Amino acid sequence: MINLFVVQKGRLAQEQVEERSELLQHKPIWIDVIDPDDEELAWIKETYGVVLPELEQLGDLEASARYFEGEDGHIHIRTDFLLDEEATSRNVRVAFVLTKDVLFSIHDEDLPAFRLVRMRARLRPGSVRNAKDVLMDLYATDAEYSADSIEEVYERLEDASKRVLADEVTDAAAADVLEIIARVEDLNGRIRRNVMDTRRAVSFLLRSQLLSADQQDEARQVLRDIDSIENHTAFLSDKVNFLMDATVGFININQNKIIKLFSVVSVALMPPTLIASIYGMNFKVMPELDWAEGYPYAIVMMVVSAAIPLVYFRRKGWLK
């Protein structure tokens, strides 16, 4: 799918392209390509002379392949954008090609940062004037989206803290907390990776000296926001480790209680077991074999010998 964006009366207007001829009817500042087929990539190449990378090529992690200026003077950038969904969170790779007048972007699914930039540009006149404005707005919005996800991490950890610090933590509650912590740590790590990648891209743009004075100020503000986000992710990582240790500690305590109970019961059953073993022997000469009251006597002795240790353990508080 190809979406092109033109500036009309100071606002960003969106057009969805169904035929190649539609590309020739507009002068866009931004062309956003989502999960394209080979034909759509060919339209871009034939119309603008820009070769967009295929989606399978976006995973190259070499720095030289992610931020560079091509022989044609086009700026090529590949950046991760955060996608935080309720079921799962992930980083989505986006490739940008910045020409003199047009920003091209290609990715395999729509992203919240892109939707937010489109909405704001439609509602706020003058917020976007050229392709580089769009690119900087995307990075600024991505940093803002990461900050919103940080707030979500705080809320999840607050819920986990309440469960861990409750009066009684059952194994089921501890298992739920561990699941929350695992998901939170995964999201926190993705946020950290995302802002680190955004920092590298924005720093590259600053070094390239392509930005205007206003755009440079916006880029520096994005870097300051990223510094703040990274501080929060470091704090959250420490808090996750604390809650993880506390939860595992409670699980160990519960397991120790079970082992302790089994140990106490086994010790309490040792005297009646000894009595049963003695009177269970089948030697030929055993006076008790002909004793009419021998069986009930042995039963009473076994019960009493088991009760005495249990009473003692209860008074000591070992059965709790």
UniProtKB/TrEMBL annotation:
It comes from the Bacteria. GO terms for molecular function: cobalt ion transmembrane transporter activity; magnesium ion transmembrane transporter activity; nickel cation transmembrane transporter activity. It is a multi-pass membrane protein. Keywords: Cell inner membrane, Cell membrane, Ion transport, Magnesium, Membrane, Transmembrane, Transmembrane helix, Transport. It is found in: Cell inner membrane; Membrane. Its main location: membrane. CDD domains: EcCorA-like_1. Mediates influx of magnesium ions. This is Magnesium transport protein CorA. The gene is corA.
